[in-house]
Amino acid sequence: MGEVIRLVHGNGGRFSHELMERYILPHFTNSLLAPLHDGAQFTVKAGRMAFTTDSYVVTPQFFPGGNIGKLAVCGTVNDLTMNGAVPQYLSCGFILEEGLDSDVLESVVTTMAAMAKEAGVQIVTGDTKVVEKGAVDGIYINTAGVGYIPEGIAIGPDRVTADMDVILTGSLGDHAVAVMGTRYGFTLPDSIVTDCAPLNGMLTPVLSEFGDAVALMRDPTRGGVATVLQEIATQAQVGIRVREAAVPVHEDVAAVCHMLGYDPLYLANEGKAILFVKKEATEEILHRLHQHTYGREAVCIGETMAKNAGKVGLETALGGVRLLDMLGEDQVPRIC
Amino acid sequence: MGEVIRLVHGNGGRFSHELMERYILPHFTNSLLAPLHDGAQFTVKAGRMAFTTDSYVVTPQFFPGGNIGKLAVCGTVNDLTMNGAVPQYLSCGFILEEGLDSDVLESVVTTMAAMAKEAGVQIVTGDTKVVEKGAVDGIYINTAGVGYIPEGIAIGPDRVTADMDVILTGSLGDHAVAVMGTRYGFTLPDSIVTDCAPLNGMLTPVLSEFGDAVALMRDPTRGGVATVLQEIATQAQVGIRVREAAVPVHEDVAAVCHMLGYDPLYLANEGKAILFVKKEATEEILHRLHQHTYGREAVCIGETMAKNAGKVGLETALGGVRLLDMLGEDQVPRIC
Fold first, then answer.
1. Domain spanning B157-324: CATH 3.40.630.10
2. Which is an annotated Pfam family here (chains A, B) (predicted)?
3. Which of residues 8-67 of A touch B (CB under 8 A)?
4. Over chain A, what is the mean pLDDT?
5. Residue B286, helix vs strand vs coil
6. pLDDT class for A38, splitting at 50, 70, 90?
7. Which fold does the domain B7-149 belong to in CATH?
8. Domain A157-323 falls in which CATH fold?
């Protein structure tokens, strides 16, 4: 047991300073964060930047393979990456529940620092609020991030056209099943761990190497692959055909999904991306992805078509076609 | 009564899209937000930028003169301004409680849009999570912001030296007393309203007009004026003397503070700044501040000294000197 976090740790005075100095600054230390001046300052080159934010409210806050801090860094790093940006700087806003054990906070902060290091980003500014017991569930984190978009990178739904391949960088459902299993006290096989990972190390080089052969990248988090594909089919006004047999789902994850009635196509992933690529580049891009830890199971799961614009069809194992809509009623709340 | 916010409104699927399209996008609409692509993209000039974040957990969420949305925009605009930056783009992360009335959300969003307009910033990217009833208290908001720092602007604690004047741009305690009065159901005089305001319209021109005559700006939010002065005395290694009689506190606010035992020097303000300025510029800067709505009561409250480095002394009305420390135990939790 560490120290008990109290309301005064969020009042902006002496106790707030102590909280920062004991549990946060030793881990996040970098030259830009040091001045504690209600903001960070840095120099940028002329060009395009991306800016994104996400709040994290996952429950429980620790689960096989990760915790809320891992999600908070990787999620925002990945959103920047999906914008074609090189992630650079992150902000971090904590909302803590009175009575939280400081060991929990420090464990989360330590993970955030490790993930930031892996992703090559700096956590440069932050804020901590403490609310009374019951006014928040343990710890919520918001991260925002900025990064520069290298010259020549232009990805977006408007670049998606008919006759492109759809690549998925790995298996579905691992994160959602790992979190749900912990939440409901199931005994899960050790193989089921969150896929949460920073994807910039794998994808930024792919973008720069393959240039405009990559039209769009998206990470299928909340709403899952089905929701992302439906959004893109609508925005790009193309039809998308997915081969169910090609979609990778780990055996143990599939078994849990089968038992609980989850459809992996709608489950949140935290370390996967969908790429829309020109067909002539598919093989080479897959080869490149396979060389990276996070892309070993990358596979082409389908393609875009001029017909059936705005629709996503799933070719089932039995040869039928099922239309995929966006996620409607929730399968798994508070998954990230 | 509007629609009831449900958990599915945060699941990233169809209901999340509806929530965005009904209650948020119509108010925040701008060309950068439009693509809904998990992030915004914009072009920047080469130079220095500031980046800051704050989470807002104020209770109650509506109070005389404002609401949590007003705080969320003004607070981040002001933090950027205090960095010497011209605020440009804001992110916005909502955490909503299941069962929230959509009218509440829309009212907050409408206020945010109005404040963003006044401050000349765009809310360009966001995120909405919904947690089950009881896992958050109504609505929490995180905003992060970026802005560019004009060439030649260099303010910071290291610029503060002995023999500078300390300017306060207006009266203390209005925000904290307005929120506390509402929280505890006091009948307050109509004169007591939050001072929450975006300060860039007043202060950015002062910085550009008076250049390096302004050494530092800080907004005395959580922890109040006393905490900010103590931080700066320590960081700049100067002594600071404040004349109690010069510190403006509105009569009705002072009466409430007297009754409840609050010290206005430790109360949070949301539309005030402290400026450390070269003495020869004080008169002109005050004259300039007085011309702006938010600076009409600006006044010089004290000065820096070479002696007593790291200490802040308050010259009381009776002629004694009281040392001011940072805020210790809390007077007013969840004030912003």
1. no
2. AIRS
3. 8, 10-17, 35, 37-57, 59
4. 95
5. helix
6. confident
7. 60s Ribosomal Protein L30; Chain: A; (3.30.1330)
8. Phosphoribosyl-aminoimidazole Synthetase; Chain A, domain 2 (3.90.650)
Which range, of B29-33, B156-160, B188-192, averages the lowest pLDDT?
A: B29-33
Quick one: pLDDT at residue A245?
96
Distance CA A242, CA A166 (A): 8
CB contact under 8 A, B330 and A7: yes
Task: Write the CA distances from B139 to A325, B6, B112, B329, integer angstroms.
Answer: 29, 13, 14, 26
A127: chain B residues, CB-CB within 8 Å:
53-55
Q: Looking at chain B from residue 186 to 205, which residues have their Cβ under 8 Å from any Cβ of chain A? A: none
Q: How far apart are CA A49 and CA A188, in angstroms?
A: 42
Closest by Cβ to B222, choosing from A11, A40, A94: A11
Domain residue spans of chain A: 7-149, 157-323
Whether residue B55 and residue A94 make contact (CB cut-off 8 A), yes or no, is yes
Pick among B18, B37, B326 to test the A interface (most A CBs inside 10 A): B37
Chain B residues touching residue A222 (CB < 8 angstroms): 10-13, 16
Question: Cα(first)–Cα(last) distance of chain A, in Å?
Answer: 26
Q: Tokens standing for B40?
A: 């915004």
| Complex ipTM tops 0.90 | yes
Q: Which residue has the tokens 């946060």?
A: A24
What mean pLDDT is reported for chain B? 95
Euclidean distance between CA atoms B297 and B168, whole angstroms: 8
Handedness of CA A303, A308, A310, A313 (dihedral sign): negative
Q: Is A330 on the interface with B (CB under 8 A)?
A: yes
